[in-house]
Amino acid sequence: MDINIEDFKRVHFIGIGGISMSGLAHILINAGHTVTGSDLKDSHIIKKLKTEGAVINIPHEAKNVDGANLVVYTAAVKQDNPEIIRAKELAIPLIDRATLLGQIMKKFKYGVAVAGSHGKTTATSLVSILLKEMNYDPTVLIGGEVDILGGNVRVGNSDYFITEACEYTDSFLKFYPYIAVILNVDSDHLDYFKNIENIKQSFTQFANLVPDNGFVVACGDDKNTMNVLQHINRNIITFGIENRCDWNAKDISFNKKGCPSFNAFYKGKNMGRYELSIVGKHNIYNALASLAVCNLLCADMSKTSEFIKKFKGTHRRFEEKGKINGITVIDDYAHHPTEIKATLLSAKNYPHERLICVFQPHTYSRTKSLLNGFAESFDDADIIIITDIYAAREKDTGLVNSKDLSELIAKRGKNVIYIESFTDIVNYLRNTAIPGDVIMTIGAGNIYEVGDMYLNLSKAVVGA
Q1: 304 labeled binding residue
Q2: Is 122 annotated as a binding residue?
Q3: What is the pTM of this model?
Q4: Which domain holds residue 389?
Q5: Are 88 and 171 contained in the same domain?
Q6: In terms of domains, do 423 and 278 share one?
Q7: Catalytic residues, which ones?
Q8: CB atoms within 10 A of CB 166
Q9: In order along the chain (464 residues), what is the average pLDDT of each group of 10 residues?
Q10: Looking at 42, 68, 97, which one is the last position of a domain?
Q11: Does residue 422 belong to any structural domain of this protein?
Protein backbone atom coordinates (compact mmCIF):
# COMPACT_ATOMS: atom_id res chain seq x y z
CA MET A 1 0.00 0.00 0.00
CA ASP A 2 1.53 3.29 -1.11
CA ILE A 3 0.57 6.43 0.77
CA ASN A 4 2.01 9.91 1.08
CA ILE A 5 2.48 10.60 4.77
CA GLU A 6 2.37 14.35 4.15
CA ASP A 7 -1.28 13.99 3.14
CA PHE A 8 -2.28 13.13 6.72
CA LYS A 9 -2.07 15.93 9.26
CA ARG A 10 -3.34 14.03 12.33
CA VAL A 11 -2.14 10.46 12.75
CA HIS A 12 -3.56 8.24 15.49
CA PHE A 13 -1.61 5.24 16.87
CA ILE A 14 -3.44 2.30 18.47
CA GLY A 15 -0.88 0.78 20.84
CA ILE A 16 1.37 3.84 20.83
CA GLY A 17 3.36 2.63 23.85
CA GLY A 18 5.04 -0.14 21.86
CA ILE A 19 8.74 0.33 21.26
CA SER A 20 8.44 0.64 17.48
CA MET A 21 5.11 2.49 17.46
CA SER A 22 6.44 5.10 19.87
CA GLY A 23 9.49 5.61 17.67
CA LEU A 24 7.34 6.13 14.58
CA ALA A 25 5.17 8.58 16.53
CA HIS A 26 8.30 10.50 17.52
CA ILE A 27 9.42 10.69 13.88
CA LEU A 28 6.03 12.03 12.78
CA ILE A 29 5.92 14.61 15.58
CA ASN A 30 9.30 15.88 14.42
CA ALA A 31 7.98 16.03 10.87
CA GLY A 32 5.18 18.36 11.97
CA HIS A 33 2.25 15.96 12.25
CA THR A 34 -0.31 16.07 15.02
CA VAL A 35 -0.01 12.74 16.84
CA THR A 36 -2.61 11.10 19.05
CA GLY A 37 -2.68 7.60 20.43
CA SER A 38 -3.97 5.09 22.91
CA ASP A 39 -2.75 2.11 24.87
CA LEU A 40 -3.82 -0.28 27.60
CA LYS A 41 -1.57 1.21 30.28
CA ASP A 42 0.72 4.14 30.95
CA SER A 43 4.53 3.88 30.70
CA HIS A 44 7.67 6.00 30.67
CA ILE A 45 7.57 5.82 26.86
CA ILE A 46 4.08 7.31 26.79
CA LYS A 47 5.05 10.01 29.29
CA LYS A 48 7.96 10.98 27.03
CA LEU A 49 5.70 11.22 23.97
CA LYS A 50 3.29 13.42 25.91
CA THR A 51 6.11 15.86 26.69
CA GLU A 52 6.74 16.02 22.93
CA GLY A 53 3.15 17.02 22.27
CA ALA A 54 1.32 13.74 21.66
CA VAL A 55 -2.21 13.42 23.07
CA ILE A 56 -2.56 9.89 24.46
CA ASN A 57 -5.54 8.20 26.10
CA ILE A 58 -5.67 5.12 28.33
CA PRO A 59 -7.30 2.71 27.47
CA HIS A 60 -8.60 2.08 23.92
CA GLU A 61 -11.94 3.81 23.25
CA ALA A 62 -13.81 4.39 19.99
CA LYS A 63 -13.94 8.17 20.48
CA ASN A 64 -10.12 8.40 20.52
CA VAL A 65 -9.94 8.17 16.71
CA ASP A 66 -12.52 10.91 16.03
CA GLY A 67 -10.89 13.61 13.93
CA ALA A 68 -7.89 11.51 12.85
CA ASN A 69 -6.82 11.50 9.20
CA LEU A 70 -4.90 8.21 9.43
CA VAL A 71 -4.96 5.36 11.95
CA VAL A 72 -1.93 3.11 12.55
CA TYR A 73 -2.17 -0.17 14.49
CA THR A 74 0.20 -2.91 15.62
CA ALA A 75 0.03 -6.61 14.81
CA ALA A 76 -1.13 -7.21 18.39
CA VAL A 77 -4.31 -5.15 17.86
CA LYS A 78 -7.25 -7.27 16.77
CA GLN A 79 -9.94 -6.24 14.29
CA ASP A 80 -12.56 -6.14 17.04
CA ASN A 81 -10.69 -3.31 18.77
CA PRO A 82 -13.19 -0.44 19.31
CA GLU A 83 -10.87 2.07 17.67
CA ILE A 84 -10.42 -0.12 14.58
CA ILE A 85 -14.19 -0.49 14.31
CA ARG A 86 -14.71 3.26 14.72
CA ALA A 87 -12.07 4.11 12.10
CA LYS A 88 -13.85 1.84 9.61
CA GLU A 89 -17.21 3.46 10.42
CA LEU A 90 -15.70 6.90 9.73
CA ALA A 91 -13.85 5.63 6.61
CA ILE A 92 -10.51 6.76 8.08
CA PRO A 93 -7.59 5.05 6.29
CA LEU A 94 -6.08 2.21 8.37
CA ILE A 95 -2.53 0.90 8.01
CA ASP A 96 -0.36 -1.37 10.12
CA ARG A 97 2.90 -0.36 11.78
CA ALA A 98 5.11 -2.04 9.17
CA THR A 99 3.40 -0.23 6.31
CA LEU A 100 4.01 3.15 7.94
CA LEU A 101 7.63 2.26 8.66
CA GLY A 102 8.12 1.19 5.04
CA GLN A 103 6.59 4.38 3.69
CA ILE A 104 8.87 6.47 5.90
CA MET A 105 11.88 4.38 4.86
CA LYS A 106 10.99 4.85 1.20
CA LYS A 107 11.81 8.56 1.46
CA PHE A 108 15.47 7.89 2.27
CA LYS A 109 18.11 7.17 -0.35
CA TYR A 110 20.08 4.78 1.86
CA GLY A 111 17.83 2.59 3.96
CA VAL A 112 19.50 -0.10 6.06
CA ALA A 113 17.17 -2.85 7.30
CA VAL A 114 18.67 -5.31 9.80
CA ALA A 115 16.89 -8.67 9.82
CA GLY A 116 17.51 -11.99 11.53
CA SER A 117 15.89 -14.31 14.02
CA HIS A 118 18.36 -13.13 16.70
CA GLY A 119 20.54 -10.07 17.31
CA LYS A 120 18.59 -7.43 15.37
CA THR A 121 18.49 -4.84 18.12
CA THR A 122 22.21 -5.03 18.92
CA ALA A 123 23.34 -5.03 15.28
CA THR A 124 21.02 -2.13 14.41
CA SER A 125 22.34 -0.22 17.42
CA LEU A 126 25.94 -0.80 16.36
CA VAL A 127 25.32 0.41 12.80
CA SER A 128 23.44 3.44 14.12
CA ILE A 129 26.09 4.44 16.63
CA LEU A 130 28.95 4.05 14.16
CA LEU A 131 27.21 6.19 11.53
CA LYS A 132 26.14 8.77 14.12
CA GLU A 133 29.66 9.07 15.50
CA MET A 134 31.02 9.50 11.97
CA ASN A 135 28.57 12.36 11.34
CA TYR A 136 26.29 10.56 8.89
CA ASP A 137 23.39 12.00 10.93
CA PRO A 138 21.09 8.98 10.38
CA THR A 139 17.45 8.61 11.31
CA VAL A 140 17.22 5.51 13.48
CA LEU A 141 14.47 3.21 14.75
CA ILE A 142 15.52 0.42 17.12
CA GLY A 143 13.59 -2.22 19.08
CA GLY A 144 15.37 -1.39 22.32
CA GLU A 145 16.57 1.64 24.25
CA VAL A 146 20.18 2.70 23.78
CA ASP A 147 21.65 5.22 26.21
CA ILE A 148 24.18 6.60 23.74
CA LEU A 149 21.31 7.41 21.34
CA GLY A 150 19.02 8.72 24.08
CA GLY A 151 16.36 6.05 23.53
CA ASN A 152 15.13 3.85 20.69
CA VAL A 153 14.68 6.54 18.06
CA ARG A 154 16.80 9.27 16.54
CA VAL A 155 15.68 11.82 13.97
CA GLY A 156 18.51 12.86 11.66
CA ASN A 157 18.76 15.18 8.69
CA SER A 158 20.37 13.06 5.99
CA ASP A 159 19.70 10.36 3.39
CA TYR A 160 20.40 7.54 5.88
CA PHE A 161 17.71 5.51 7.66
CA ILE A 162 18.55 2.56 9.92
CA THR A 163 15.93 0.18 11.29
CA GLU A 164 15.29 -3.31 12.55
CA ALA A 165 13.40 -5.53 10.13
CA CYS A 166 11.19 -8.08 11.89
CA GLU A 167 10.02 -11.13 9.98
CA TYR A 168 6.91 -11.73 12.11
CA THR A 169 3.75 -11.55 9.93
CA ASP A 170 6.14 -10.78 7.04
CA SER A 171 6.41 -7.18 8.27
CA PHE A 172 9.83 -6.67 6.67
CA LEU A 173 8.39 -7.31 3.19
CA LYS A 174 6.87 -3.81 3.37
CA PHE A 175 10.30 -2.14 3.64
CA TYR A 176 12.57 -0.48 1.07
CA PRO A 177 16.15 -1.42 1.95
CA TYR A 178 19.21 -0.27 0.04
CA ILE A 179 21.18 -2.59 2.32
CA ALA A 180 19.47 -5.66 3.76
CA VAL A 181 21.29 -7.40 6.61
CA ILE A 182 20.52 -11.04 7.43
CA LEU A 183 22.16 -12.04 10.70
CA ASN A 184 20.68 -15.56 10.89
CA VAL A 185 17.54 -17.51 10.03
CA ASP A 186 15.99 -19.77 12.68
CA SER A 187 12.68 -21.43 13.54
CA ASP A 188 10.51 -18.90 15.36
CA HIS A 189 7.07 -17.28 15.17
CA LEU A 190 5.58 -20.64 14.29
CA ASP A 191 2.13 -19.27 15.12
CA TYR A 192 2.50 -17.45 11.78
CA PHE A 193 5.04 -19.43 9.75
CA LYS A 194 4.40 -23.06 8.83
CA ASN A 195 8.01 -24.26 9.19
CA ILE A 196 11.64 -23.28 8.62
CA GLU A 197 11.24 -23.57 4.85
CA ASN A 198 8.42 -21.03 5.00
CA ILE A 199 10.65 -18.73 7.07
CA LYS A 200 13.51 -19.03 4.56
CA GLN A 201 11.12 -18.13 1.75
CA SER A 202 10.22 -14.91 3.56
CA PHE A 203 13.86 -13.99 4.08
CA THR A 204 14.46 -14.68 0.39
CA GLN A 205 11.67 -12.25 -0.52
CA PHE A 206 13.15 -9.73 1.89
CA ALA A 207 16.60 -9.96 0.31
CA ASN A 208 15.09 -9.54 -3.14
CA LEU A 209 13.63 -6.18 -2.10
CA VAL A 210 17.13 -4.73 -2.43
CA PRO A 211 17.59 -2.77 -5.67
CA ASP A 212 20.16 -3.88 -8.25
CA ASN A 213 22.65 -1.28 -6.99
CA GLY A 214 22.08 -2.21 -3.34
CA PHE A 215 23.60 -4.92 -1.14
CA VAL A 216 22.72 -7.93 0.97
CA VAL A 217 24.99 -8.36 4.00
CA ALA A 218 24.67 -11.91 5.31
CA CYS A 219 26.21 -14.33 7.79
CA GLY A 220 28.34 -16.93 6.04
CA ASP A 221 28.38 -19.21 9.10
CA ASP A 222 24.61 -19.63 9.24
CA LYS A 223 23.37 -22.58 7.16
CA ASN A 224 19.83 -21.29 6.68
CA THR A 225 21.08 -17.85 5.66
CA MET A 226 23.35 -19.42 3.06
CA ASN A 227 20.34 -21.34 1.73
CA VAL A 228 18.55 -18.02 1.32
CA LEU A 229 21.46 -16.53 -0.62
CA GLN A 230 21.18 -19.28 -3.24
CA HIS A 231 17.85 -17.83 -4.32
CA ILE A 232 18.77 -14.17 -4.77
CA ASN A 233 20.62 -12.28 -7.48
CA ARG A 234 22.00 -9.27 -5.67
CA ASN A 235 25.37 -7.87 -4.58
CA ILE A 236 26.27 -10.01 -1.55
CA ILE A 237 28.76 -9.32 1.24
CA THR A 238 29.28 -12.12 3.76
CA PHE A 239 30.67 -12.09 7.29
CA GLY A 240 31.65 -14.87 9.65
CA ILE A 241 34.08 -16.53 12.02
CA GLU A 242 34.19 -20.20 11.05
CA ASN A 243 33.91 -20.05 7.24
CA ARG A 244 35.79 -17.99 4.70
CA CYS A 245 33.79 -14.78 4.16
CA ASP A 246 34.31 -11.26 2.85
CA TRP A 247 34.54 -10.13 6.48
CA ASN A 248 36.16 -12.46 8.99
CA ALA A 249 37.01 -12.24 12.69
CA LYS A 250 40.27 -13.89 13.73
CA ASP A 251 42.53 -14.06 16.80
CA ILE A 252 39.55 -13.86 19.15
CA SER A 253 40.06 -13.38 22.88
CA PHE A 254 37.83 -12.47 25.84
CA ASN A 255 38.47 -10.21 28.81
CA LYS A 256 37.55 -11.13 32.39
CA LYS A 257 33.94 -10.01 31.87
CA GLY A 258 33.49 -12.01 28.68
CA CYS A 259 33.77 -9.11 26.24
CA PRO A 260 35.52 -10.23 23.02
CA SER A 261 38.37 -8.72 21.04
CA PHE A 262 39.26 -9.73 17.50
CA ASN A 263 41.11 -8.78 14.36
CA ALA A 264 38.75 -7.94 11.49
CA PHE A 265 39.76 -8.93 7.98
CA TYR A 266 38.07 -7.67 4.80
CA LYS A 267 38.89 -9.77 1.76
CA GLY A 268 42.12 -10.83 3.42
CA LYS A 269 43.20 -7.35 4.51
CA ASN A 270 43.62 -6.75 8.24
CA MET A 271 41.31 -3.84 9.11
CA GLY A 272 42.54 -3.59 12.69
CA ARG A 273 41.76 -4.94 16.14
CA TYR A 274 38.35 -4.38 17.68
CA GLU A 275 37.41 -4.49 21.36
CA LEU A 276 33.75 -4.84 22.26
CA SER A 277 32.16 -3.63 25.49
CA ILE A 278 29.37 -6.20 25.16
CA VAL A 279 29.75 -9.86 26.07
CA GLY A 280 29.63 -13.02 24.01
CA LYS A 281 30.88 -14.59 20.81
CA HIS A 282 27.52 -13.95 19.17
CA ASN A 283 28.16 -10.20 19.36
CA ILE A 284 31.23 -10.61 17.16
CA TYR A 285 28.81 -11.46 14.36
CA ASN A 286 26.77 -8.33 15.12
CA ALA A 287 29.94 -6.25 15.07
CA LEU A 288 31.10 -7.73 11.75
CA ALA A 289 27.71 -7.00 10.20
CA SER A 290 27.91 -3.38 11.33
CA LEU A 291 31.44 -3.01 9.95
CA ALA A 292 30.33 -4.44 6.61
CA VAL A 293 27.46 -1.94 6.38
CA CYS A 294 29.67 1.03 7.26
CA ASN A 295 32.25 -0.01 4.70
CA LEU A 296 29.56 -0.21 1.98
CA LEU A 297 28.48 3.31 2.91
CA CYS A 298 32.08 4.50 2.43
CA ALA A 299 32.75 5.22 6.08
CA ASP A 300 36.25 5.97 7.36
CA MET A 301 36.96 2.51 8.76
CA SER A 302 40.00 3.71 10.70
CA LYS A 303 37.64 5.35 13.20
CA THR A 304 35.28 2.42 13.71
CA SER A 305 37.35 0.60 16.35
CA GLU A 306 37.25 3.68 18.59
CA PHE A 307 33.49 4.13 18.22
CA ILE A 308 32.49 0.48 18.43
CA LYS A 309 34.05 0.21 21.88
CA LYS A 310 31.77 3.00 23.13
CA PHE A 311 28.71 0.84 22.72
CA LYS A 312 27.76 -0.61 26.12
CA GLY A 313 24.69 -2.47 24.85
CA THR A 314 20.98 -1.85 24.74
CA HIS A 315 18.66 -2.13 27.70
CA ARG A 316 17.61 -5.72 28.41
CA ARG A 317 20.54 -7.24 26.48
CA PHE A 318 22.90 -8.72 29.09
CA GLU A 319 22.21 -5.60 31.12
CA GLU A 320 23.83 -5.40 34.54
CA LYS A 321 21.04 -4.14 36.79
CA GLY A 322 23.00 -3.96 40.03
CA LYS A 323 25.08 -5.72 42.64
CA ILE A 324 24.35 -6.18 46.33
CA ASN A 325 25.86 -8.42 49.01
CA GLY A 326 28.29 -9.74 46.39
CA ILE A 327 25.41 -10.95 44.18
CA THR A 328 25.09 -9.54 40.65
CA VAL A 329 21.74 -9.18 38.86
CA ILE A 330 21.73 -9.28 35.04
CA ASP A 331 18.73 -9.03 32.73
CA ASP A 332 18.44 -10.32 29.17
CA TYR A 333 15.67 -10.27 26.56
CA ALA A 334 16.45 -13.78 25.22
CA HIS A 335 13.22 -15.64 24.47
CA HIS A 336 14.27 -18.32 21.97
CA PRO A 337 16.38 -21.44 22.72
CA THR A 338 19.21 -20.26 20.46
CA GLU A 339 19.30 -16.88 22.24
CA ILE A 340 19.19 -18.45 25.70
CA LYS A 341 22.09 -20.77 24.86
CA ALA A 342 24.15 -17.83 23.56
CA THR A 343 23.33 -15.71 26.60
CA LEU A 344 24.22 -18.43 29.12
CA LEU A 345 27.38 -19.27 27.18
CA SER A 346 28.35 -15.60 27.46
CA ALA A 347 27.61 -15.71 31.19
CA LYS A 348 30.11 -18.57 31.61
CA ASN A 349 32.87 -16.07 30.86
CA TYR A 350 31.46 -13.60 33.36
CA PRO A 351 32.97 -13.96 36.88
CA HIS A 352 30.61 -15.94 39.11
CA GLU A 353 30.30 -18.83 41.55
CA ARG A 354 26.89 -20.04 40.42
CA LEU A 355 24.56 -18.91 37.66
CA ILE A 356 20.93 -18.71 38.77
CA CYS A 357 18.62 -18.33 35.81
CA VAL A 358 15.03 -17.06 36.14
CA PHE A 359 13.13 -17.69 32.90
CA GLN A 360 9.72 -16.49 31.78
CA PRO A 361 8.60 -18.19 28.52
CA HIS A 362 7.12 -15.79 25.96
CA THR A 363 3.88 -16.79 24.18
CA TYR A 364 2.17 -20.17 24.31
CA SER A 365 2.76 -20.94 20.63
CA ARG A 366 6.53 -20.43 20.86
CA THR A 367 6.76 -22.43 24.09
CA LYS A 368 4.82 -25.34 22.63
CA SER A 369 6.55 -25.46 19.24
CA LEU A 370 10.07 -25.13 20.69
CA LEU A 371 9.53 -26.93 24.02
CA ASN A 372 12.34 -29.48 23.63
CA GLY A 373 14.72 -26.78 22.44
CA PHE A 374 13.95 -24.69 25.51
CA ALA A 375 14.56 -27.69 27.78
CA GLU A 376 18.04 -28.14 26.27
CA SER A 377 18.99 -24.46 26.41
CA PHE A 378 19.67 -24.17 30.16
CA ASP A 379 22.56 -26.61 30.48
CA ASP A 380 25.02 -23.84 31.41
CA ALA A 381 22.91 -22.65 34.36
CA ASP A 382 23.41 -24.03 37.87
CA ILE A 383 19.93 -23.26 39.21
CA ILE A 384 16.91 -22.68 36.98
CA ILE A 385 13.63 -21.06 38.01
CA ILE A 386 10.73 -21.25 35.57
CA THR A 387 7.70 -18.99 35.97
CA ASP A 388 4.41 -18.75 34.08
CA ILE A 389 4.25 -18.08 30.35
CA TYR A 390 3.92 -14.42 29.32
CA ALA A 391 0.89 -14.47 27.02
CA ALA A 392 1.66 -11.28 25.06
CA ARG A 393 -0.74 -11.26 22.09
CA GLU A 394 -2.09 -14.78 22.75
CA LYS A 395 -4.71 -16.54 24.85
CA ASP A 396 -4.02 -19.64 26.93
CA THR A 397 -4.92 -22.69 24.85
CA GLY A 398 -4.29 -25.09 27.71
CA LEU A 399 -1.97 -27.12 25.48
CA VAL A 400 1.26 -26.11 27.23
CA ASN A 401 2.35 -24.62 30.53
CA SER A 402 5.56 -23.81 32.36
CA LYS A 403 5.40 -26.97 34.47
CA ASP A 404 5.82 -28.97 31.23
CA LEU A 405 9.09 -27.15 30.58
CA SER A 406 10.25 -27.50 34.17
CA GLU A 407 9.70 -31.26 34.06
CA LEU A 408 11.67 -31.63 30.82
CA ILE A 409 14.59 -29.64 32.26
CA ALA A 410 14.54 -31.82 35.40
CA LYS A 411 14.81 -34.93 33.22
CA ARG A 412 18.16 -33.58 32.02
CA GLY A 413 19.41 -33.73 35.60
CA LYS A 414 19.27 -29.98 36.16
CA ASN A 415 18.39 -28.20 39.40
CA VAL A 416 15.08 -26.61 38.35
CA ILE A 417 12.03 -25.32 40.19
CA TYR A 418 8.72 -23.88 39.01
CA ILE A 419 7.57 -20.79 40.93
CA GLU A 420 4.41 -18.96 39.93
CA SER A 421 4.56 -15.53 41.57
CA PHE A 422 7.30 -12.94 41.28
CA THR A 423 7.16 -12.29 45.02
CA ASP A 424 7.80 -15.96 45.75
CA ILE A 425 10.68 -15.98 43.25
CA VAL A 426 12.29 -13.03 45.03
CA ASN A 427 11.92 -14.74 48.40
CA TYR A 428 13.46 -17.92 46.98
CA LEU A 429 16.40 -15.93 45.59
CA ARG A 430 16.96 -14.16 48.90
CA ASN A 431 17.15 -17.53 50.64
CA THR A 432 19.26 -19.23 47.96
CA ALA A 433 21.73 -16.78 46.41
CA ILE A 434 25.15 -16.42 48.02
CA PRO A 435 28.01 -13.96 47.44
CA GLY A 436 29.60 -14.55 44.06
CA ASP A 437 26.38 -15.72 42.43
CA VAL A 438 24.91 -14.16 39.31
CA ILE A 439 21.13 -13.95 39.09
CA MET A 440 20.00 -13.67 35.48
CA THR A 441 16.42 -12.84 34.54
CA ILE A 442 15.63 -13.98 30.99
CA GLY A 443 12.61 -13.41 28.76
CA ALA A 444 10.83 -10.89 26.55
CA GLY A 445 7.97 -10.23 28.97
CA ASN A 446 8.09 -8.46 32.34
CA ILE A 447 10.50 -10.85 34.08
CA TYR A 448 12.96 -7.97 34.54
CA GLU A 449 10.68 -6.87 37.38
CA VAL A 450 11.99 -9.79 39.45
CA GLY A 451 15.52 -8.38 39.33
CA ASP A 452 14.28 -4.91 40.24
CA MET A 453 12.23 -6.31 43.13
CA TYR A 454 15.17 -8.35 44.41
CA LEU A 455 17.59 -5.42 44.30
CA ASN A 456 15.12 -2.98 45.89
CA LEU A 457 14.18 -5.36 48.70
CA SER A 458 17.81 -6.29 49.38
CA LYS A 459 18.81 -2.61 49.48
CA ALA A 460 15.96 -1.86 51.86
CA VAL A 461 17.06 -4.66 54.19
CA VAL A 462 20.70 -3.52 54.07
CA GLY A 463 19.65 0.06 54.81
CA ALA A 464 17.30 -0.92 57.64
Answers
A1: no
A2: yes
A3: 0.85
A4: 319-463
A5: no
A6: no
A7: 120-121, 164
A8: 23
A9: 87 93 94 94 90 94 96 90 96 95 96 95 94 95 80 92 93 97 90 90 97 97 96 96 97 91 97 94 96 96 92 80 92 90 86 93 92 94 95 85 95 95 96 95 93 86 52
A10: 97
A11: yes
